[in-house]
């Protein structure tokens, strides 16, 4: 986890624990004291990840096709009659 993201998570945890402590005491919080922290949901990361997965699957399919082609050519070469000189 990046340092800035860790820092954001720590701030968020601090905010929630402070809010919980205040509510447990029965005190009302002012809206001015509320702090909002936006945490990157990582959507971009997941989109990139799934794009890479799709690319890898495509490459695996191409490799499989090439392997089958090599097997066929190998079989054709081995079964072809050879002339001894």
TrEMBL record:
Which residue positions does the secretion signal occupy? none
Q: Which GO terms describe its biological process?
A: vesicle-mediated transport
Tree of life domain:
Eukaryota
- Residue ranges for the region (Disordered) are 17-40
Gene Ontology cellular-component terms for this entry are: membrane
- Positions of the Syntaxin N-terminal domain: 44-82
Q: Which InterPro entries match?
A: SNARE (IPR010989), Syntaxin_N (IPR006011)
Report biased composition (Basic and acidic residues) as residue ranges.
17-26
Q: Which residues form a coiled coil?
A: 46-73
Q: Which residues cross the membrane?
A: none
Q: Which SUPFAM superfamilies match?
A: t-snare proteins (SSF47661)
Keywords of the record = Coiled coil
Name this protein carries in UniProt: Chain B, The Habc Domain Of Neuronal Syntaxin From The Squid Loligo Pealei
Organism expressing this protein natively? Stichopus japonicus (Sea cucumber)
Q: What is the lineage of its organism?
A: Eukaryota, Metazoa, Echinodermata, Eleutherozoa, Echinozoa
């Amino acid at each position: 986890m990046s340092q800035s993201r860790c820092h954001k998570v720590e701030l968020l945890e601090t905010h929630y624990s402070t809010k919980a402590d205040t509510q447990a005491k029965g005190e009302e919080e002012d809206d001015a004291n509320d702090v909002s922290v936006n945490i990157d949901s990582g959507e971009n990361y997941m989109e990139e990840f799934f794009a890479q997965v799709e690319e890898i699957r495509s490459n695996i399919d191409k490799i499989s096709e090439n392997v089958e082609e090599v097997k066929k050519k190998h079989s054709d070469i081995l079964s072809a009659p050879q002339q001894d000189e």
